[in-house]
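> example.struct
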């Protein structure tokens, strides 16, 4: 079974790829600097993977008749994973937990914003291959950065 081609949305792969390395950095900043509650590296990877998988919904199913239910269900699942991985077992105040949970919205908006930077670059004449080259360099930089800071 293949998705109906008429359901396809405007989100392009280079946008998702470009947003991914920036969102990883953002996750680390949110959890380690803002919330002062570092996560295990695999949790950052899982959250980044889930965040980037919104691409599948927005690219292949954006105009599907069930899009609204699908995107909102997945958003709820993402927020629950965010809560379960980083907030649930913390012995912090209710205010801290609410603030930590609200940062899932900030993360999502900034992830989409970084994807829009890639879209803007391509719309301004930069070929998408160069956006992808920058994204791969960024991903390599993230790996080296995390390796240096966590001694992976």
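> example.seq
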């Amino acid at each position: 079974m293949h998705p109906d081609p008429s359901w396809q949305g405007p989100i392009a792969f280079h946008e998702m790829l470009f947003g991914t390395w920036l969102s990883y950095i953002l996750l680390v900043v949110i959890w380690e600097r803002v919330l002062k509650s570092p996560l295990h590296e695999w949790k950052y990877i899982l959250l980044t993977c889930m965040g980037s998988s919104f691409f599948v919904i927005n690219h292949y199913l954006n105009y599907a008749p069930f899009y609204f239910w699908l995107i909102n269900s997945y958003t709820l699942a993402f927020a629950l994973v965010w809560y379960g991985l980083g907030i649930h077992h913390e012995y912090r105040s209710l205010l801290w937990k609410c603030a930590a949970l609200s940062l899932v919205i900030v993360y999502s908006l900034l992830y989409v914003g970084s994807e829009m930077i890639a879209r803007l670059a391509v719309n301004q004449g930069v070929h998408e291959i160069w956006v992808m080259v920058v994204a791969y360099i960024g991903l390599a930089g993230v790996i080296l950065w995390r390796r240096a800071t966590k001694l992976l």
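> remarks
The radius of gyration is 17 Å.
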